[in-house]
Write a structure and sequence with these properties.
The protein is α/β, with parallel strands linked by helices. It folds into two domains: about 120 residues, Aspartate Aminotransferase, domain 1 (Alpha-Beta Complex); about 220 residues, Type I PLP-dependent aspartate aminotransferase-like (Major domain) (Aspartate Aminotransferase, domain 2), CATH 3.40.640.10. It is built from 13 helices and twelve strands. It has a seven-stranded mixed sheet, with helices on both faces. A three-stranded antiparallel sheet has the order 9-10-12. Strands 1-11 form a two-stranded parallel sheet. A hairpin with a 6-residue loop joins β9 and β10. It is globular, with a radius of gyration of 21 Å. It starts with 15 loop residues before the first helix and ends with a helix. Bound molecules: pyridoxal-5'-phosphate. The site of pyridoxal-5'-phosphate has 13 residues, from α5.
Length: about 375
């Protein structure tokens, strides 16, 4: 049938912000790498997932939730938010759920950054924050890592200089594995310029020493903290995380969040995971042992493992060309997926997630073979 000319096929022009974006996502996923390689990966140690899995009680809760999966989940996430509020000694109004920290970063950007507004972060820091800011038409001002950690002073200074609305900090940090002390973070908060919000991404908090966790008043309007069930709880595929902070700062996210974005099974899984702190403690101890293994492996090969407060280890292999060569050889020759930091000075390193002992053994053997051929 002929299409009348006033209904001729076509589409509206892309919105200007989207038209100006590169056709890329922050990460090439391991599945895409497998398709590119034409075979499955042997070892998957690039995405800082937990190789130790969720607890048995979580699997049980998910099985039970599956029986009611025809029903929408609670859009207010009441039970889970209540449990999280209790866990952190907060009220329900201090907690917002999201389908992972990644979604919550996007909501914070939409809520607080005008298109054209500026956010500050470390150069080579967590790329999803850049992705969310760019997708909203914001600008990023970066500050290089100093001594392989976030430069607390440099970040605050940059926020003042450019009039930033958001300062993003991952603590403990991805990709360096380092951490700033809670006292340093409190000092940053006190020196933030007026009208600048600290977005404190604590995805790896469970793995960090106690002094990495800042003592910030629940009602401090200058900070939003982000946590996830993707790491220590072993639920990366489930997509559930949360933000907590002063109600006046975080409740506006309710105006724009995807109301059913945290599904019924995700809420049930997170609730069971939060209740099983023994599992978290077991994973944290197993990860600490794995970090020590990687440090020993690095020493054996004449490389240097940076100290890590996370579930991965960043290993200095001496230069970015070397790091890229190792990454490519591990992937193509050995079927081992790891990642490396994207910017100097950390791009002289590779980044390896702590796997179970069997994955660590496979990684060590592959790494030794690749290193021998450099
Ligand atoms: C610093 C940091 N924040 C957030 C995330 C992702 O968290 P989620 O799975 O909750 O979106 C990661 C995952 O690697 C991360 O490294």
């Amino acid at each position: 049938m002929a299409v009348p000319s006033d209904l001729a096929p076509g589409r509206p022009a892309l919105a200007a912000i989207v038209a100006g974006l590169p056709a890329s996502t922050p990460f090439v996923g391991p599945e895409a790498l497998e398709r590119r390689l034409g075979r499955p990966l042997g070892v998957r140690l690039g995405a800082n997932e937990s190789l130790f899995g969720p607890s048995a009680r979580v699997i049980e809760a998910m099985r039970a939730a599956a029986l009611d999966i025809n029903l929408y989940g609670d859009p207010e996430g009441f039970e889970l938010r209540t449990a999280l509020a209790r866990h952190h000694a907060l009220t329900l109004d201090h907690v917002v759920l999201g389908s992972g920290i990644d979604e919550l970063l996007g909501l914070l950007v939409r809520a607080y950054l005008e298109p054209g507004g500026i956010a500050v972060m470390s150069l080579g820091g967590y790329p999803t924050f850049v992705y969310q800011v760019s997708g909203h038409g914001g600008r990023i001002e970066t500050v290089p890592y100093r001594d392989d950690r976030n430069d607390a002073e440099g970040l605050v200074e940059a926020a003042r200089r450019v009039g930033a609305k958001l300062l993003y900090l991952s603590n403990p940090d991805n990709p360096s594995g380092s951490y700033l002390t809670g006292a340093t973070i409190c000092d940053m908060v006190d020196r933030l310029p007026r009208g600048c919000l600290l977005v404190l991404d604590e995805a790896y908090a469970e793995f960090a020493p106690a002094d990495a966790i800042p003592d910030i008043a629940a009602d401090d309007p200058r900070v939003v903290r982000l946590r996830t069930f993707s790491k220590a709880h072993g639920l990366a595929g489930m997509r559930v995380g949360y933000a907590f902070g002063a109600p006046e700062t975080i409740r506006p996210l309710d105006r724009i969040r995807n109301q059913f974005g945290v599904g019924r099974m995700a809420q049930a899984a997170a609730l069971a995971a939060l209740a099983d702190q023994d599992h978290v403690a077991t994973v944290v101890a197993a990860v600490a042992a794995g970090r020590a293994d990687y440090a020993a492996l690095a020493r054996e090969l004449g490389a240097v493992a940076l100290p890590s407060a996370t579930n991965f280890v960043t290993i200095d292999v001496g230069g970015s060309v070397c790091a890229k060569t190792i990454l490519a050889a591990l992937l193509e020759r050995e079927g081992v997926f790891i990642r490396m930091p994207g910017a100097a000075p950390l791009d002289r390193c590779i980044r390896v997630t702590v796997g179970r002992p069997e994955e660590r053994t496979l990684f060590a053997a592959a790494f030794r073979r690749v290193f021998a051929c450099l």
